[in-house]
Amino acid sequence: ASAPVAGLDVTFVVPTVPRGQGRGRASSHGGKARIHKASADRTYEGTIALAARAAMPAAILDGPLRVDIAVIVPRPAYMLKRDRRGAWKVDPGLVPCTAKPDVDNALKSVLDGMKACWRDDKQVCCGESFKFYAEVDGTPRLLVRVRSVIGERDMFARFMQVFPHGCNVPF
Q: What pLDDT band is residue 30 in, cutting at 50, 70 and 90?
């Protein structure tokens, strides 16, 4: 059974090194071309699915949803160095990351990994994505928050924060 879930707000952690969704692999079978996912992508999405199923309601979600993700990747060695006084050369907390994986590809993996939780990932109508290097003593992980947007104005309010002129942006 599926029904809109008002007030849904679930956050869960996927304890793994985040990765982006890879490109489809092409092969031919019986003279026909096929596109399929790499086994590493299927395994990663399976890891996401296990964490999602443990945290999400048993019922299939229906209605508009918001999905926010935080991709926390391993810190490179140069960020683990201290200066002569013993202070960290780079902030020991979360640091914005400009390396791989791309956040859009990470989000695609999350949405595909959670396909058992909702009718279709086209129900996801908004969300934000963040990408950081892990804290000095932190571990790589993926944070996912799923919320319903039924009866809530936060989606429109956030839209107006990002686009203060609404849809009337001059061309």
A: confident
The pLDDT tens digits for 40-70 are: 888 899 999 999 999 999 999 988 999 999 9
User: Which residue in this structure is represented by tokens 């000095």?
Assistant: 136
Q: Which long-range contacts (CB under 8 A, 24 or more apart) does 42-48 make?
A: 44/16, 44/19, 44/109, 44/113, 45/109, 45/112, 45/113, 46/113, 47/14, 47/16, 47/113, 48/14, 48/109, 48/110, 48/113, 48/114, 48/142, 48/144
Signed CA dihedral, 14, 18, 21, 25: sign only = negative
Please compute the mean of the pLDDT values over residues 106-117 and round it to a whole number.
Answer: 95
Neighbours of 83 (CB within 10 A): 8
